[in-house]
Amino acid sequence: MPNALLSVHKINKCFGPTVALRDVDFTLLPGEVHGLVGENGSGKSTLTSIIAGIRKADSGEMFKNGAPYDPASVVEAQKNAVAMIVQEMGTAPEITVAENIFLGKENAFREKGLVSKKKLNKAARDALNKIGVTNINPGMPTFLLNLEERKLIELAKAMVDEPDVLIVDETTTALSHDGRELLFKVIEEMRKKNKGVIFISHDLEELMNVCTIITVLRDGDIIGTLTKDQFEEETIKTMMVGRELTGHYYRADYDCNVGEKIVLKAKNMTGAHLVEDVNFELHEGEILGFGGLSGGGIHELGRLLFGIDKVIFGSVELADGTVITDANTAVKNGLGYVSKNRDEEAIMLQASIRNNAVLPSLTKLVRRGMIAPKKEKDLAKEIIDELRVKCQSMEQKVCFLSGGNKQKVVFGKWIGNEANILILDCPTRGVDVGVKQAMYQLMYDLRCRGCSIILISEELPELIGMSDRLIILKNGKISGEFMRSPELSEQDVIHAMI
Amino acid sequence: MTRIKRYLSGILPVAGLLIVFVVFSILGGSQFYRTQNLMRIIMQAYTVMMVGIGVTMIHAHGGIDFSVGAVLALSEMIAAIVYKRVGAPVLLIIVAVLVAVGCGLITGVITVKLRIPPFISSLCMQFTCRGIVNTVLQANSIGVTELSEPGWGVKLAVLIGFGLIVFLILNFTKVGKYNKAIGENIRAARSSGINVDLYRIAAYVISGVAVGLAAYFDLLRNGVMSTNVGYGLEMSVITAVVLGGLSLSGGYTTSMRSAVLGSLLIIMMTNGLTIVGVPISYIGIIQGIIFLLVILFTYKRESHGLLPR
After folding, report:
1. B278 in any annotated domain
2. Which of A215, A442, B117, B289 has the highest count of CB atoms within 10 angstroms of its CB?
3. Which pTM was predicted?
4. What are phi and psi of B205, to 5 degrees?
């Protein structure tokens, strides 16, 4: 195709025995915002990382504006005006914002042999302003910034060279509403200038709003490409999973009969930042949702409840009067916590599934001071079977699992330890539709067994769809409470959030 | 290549020991492989091996201890002084172990509770202990020559017994498993309900027991306690465990055999080179090159690339 901005022809890529991409053809036309969608492990990130020069394809060819294109590195891709914002952190924490934005391009700011900080900072400020960010000081060390701000720096960095092709790999999960708006504006401008954007997201609604065309991948194959008029959530989901998603996505019942017993009580709970004077009671067999804008205190609330962060005023108490002071007490008393930052905080990436899954339960396996390997294996097998973790064996390292299966292992840790109060912080973040549905089913099953769940989420449909009761936090305080009902709509809830 | 490396890092320490043994058996003949010389190698490796087994617990959670040499000296000195005052030989071992455990406890608590990197806190411990020894002894020494060294049977039995206990702790108890989990990801360990502080301190205490036992046997072997006891022991121990295949970042790959194989490997090389007739000054150069080669083949290095993944 001579007028294509970028075209990819018969790309193959294997990782060991796993085929990540199989004879993939992909074309990006000028003025296109091309969505890539598929379950975890379907090959989206692999494809874009090959285009961005991070990885090499095993075979196949690529063309940029009709000319052969085969970048050996990210720098070479950038020289060909291809820039990418990666799913993981792409900034170096120990250097300043400006240094991150112009990483590898310091020579342009030389003055008498030294890099001029002044010039660098000024250029960085311009770069940030260009994408609409005004509240970040370019001289600041990057580690002082939060996840969202760092993502915006990556965006500014990518836009410095005015690329023809911008690849955005699952960036929006890290962004708040305002951050997303900034990103969408940049994308829109790219489109107007007849450049191209490749956009990856798990959020179908967002994808349908932002993109002009969507390509669906499954197990390394292109399943199909949909144009704007063909966009429909059900169609895309079916294409992704390869079968009709039967049954209900969220729970179907509106029977909110929760137990009389109060299993956890937050009294005037106040944390070092954000959470302020929060009071609530969690009942046996209840799914209690917590929603709010990011920065509203919902994630901090989860950390306080589980004792990872210290409650500075007020308390978190259990039914028997135990006060949660640290995570150790929490786990001993049957609490479990699924962190929003899975890879950093919930899982040992280089350790086996077995070692990860049994970790909180080891205390229960001790007999005469020792832990029998057989008991450990039995428990790990039970967990893997119950949650249907897709793996080669329990000795496989967790880092080789897909996002959804990693999350299953994290859930498994607590199910293995028979936790009866689960605190789930964005449990379905970065997880594909198939696994998402399984997670919802699991939450519902646990509820029916008398387990109580605190569900913290940034996705309103999920909260409305799953919770018996929904509490909204705004600036760290409770700003609204809603009971489960078929009439409850996002509109009602948003009022309490803003 | 990564697979080859993973495979190599598993067998290389064992293979290395075998190769060194075979090479020197050929070059040095019966002078090298006779029982008497082999026993000498084990006895020379004794202190490094014992302490190495102990610090394996610390390395499991990603910690490091630079104080073992100085703590060894302090334990020997206090044990010798107490023995000289009171006169009961059994006090030697009791006091030596107590002092070393106390030092381990202090290093552990400082590291964990004051959140100081173990590299720094254990260096401080080293300076302090070495300083105390130098202040008390000045240029003098304390002789305990009236006590005879225990036979090699006893020494070997203690080493094997202690090794077995640490092996069980490391692989079949909460202390070992938790320390390994902390080495993998301390935040994940904490959020899994592990009392991270307590178990890290426990590792320093277990290591202290090893240093105390080593101090007891070292004192009786030398028969005299002077200021240069234990000099450079920390570096020998770290070299030994790394050469034996231990990853200093800790985690589930931590194994006790690193200390055993590594310490034997170092001593066997020095011993063999001496027997073959290599001048003592060259031995360091040869060892340096061999270490580098081993590390090149086994150590996990960052793959190049501008971005992660």
Report:
1. yes
2. A215
3. 0.76
4. -70, -45
Count Cβ atoms below 10 Å from residue B32 Cβ, excluding itself: 21
CATH number at residue B187: 1.10.3470
**Nearest CA among B204, B5, B265, B177 for reference residue A361:** B177
User: What residues does A165 pair with on adjacent strands?
Assistant: A82, A196
The Cα–Cα gap between A199 and A221 comes to 18
pLDDT in tens, A368-380: 999 999 999 999 9
Nearest-by-Cβ selection for B184 from A54, A89, A348:
A348
A390: pLDDT confidence band, cut at 50, 70 and 90?
A: confident
pLDDT (tens digit per residue) in B272-290? 988 888 888 888 888 788 7
CATH 3.40.50.300 matches A6-241: yes
Inter-chain Cβ pairs, chain A and chain B, closer than 8 A:
92
User: Is B308 among the domain residues?
Assistant: no
Residue B159 lies in a domain: yes
| Substitution target from B9, B165, B192, B249 for chain A, most A beta carbons within 10 A | B192
Domain boundaries, chain A: 6-241, 262-497
Tell me which chain B residue has its CA closest to the CA of residue A326.
B193
Distance in angstroms (rounded) separating the CA atoms of residues B309 and A465: 35
Tell me how many domains chain B contains: 1
Model pLDDT for residues A151-182, shown as the tens digit of each residue: 888 889 889 888 999 999 877 777 778 888 88
* B155 occurs within a structural domain: yes
**Average model confidence (pLDDT) across chain B:** 89
The two tokens of residue A112 are 């008498």
CATH 3.10.20.30 at A262-497, yes or no:
no
CA of B195: which chain A residue's CA is closest? A328
How close B251 comes to chain A (CA, Å)?
8
State whether B185 and A330 contact (CB < 8 Å): no
Structural domain boundaries, residue B104: 15-20+33-246+253-298
Q: Best of B191, B194, B199, B200 to disrupt the A interface by mutation (most A CBs within 10 Å)?
A: B191
Gap from B307 CA to chain A (nearest CA, Å):
7
Fold agreement between A6-241 and A262-497: yes
DSSP A225: E
Which value does ipTM take for this structure?
0.85
Q: Are B49 and B276 in contact (CB under 8 A)?
A: no
B171 pLDDT more than 90: yes
A367: distance to nearest CA of chain B, Å? Answer: 10
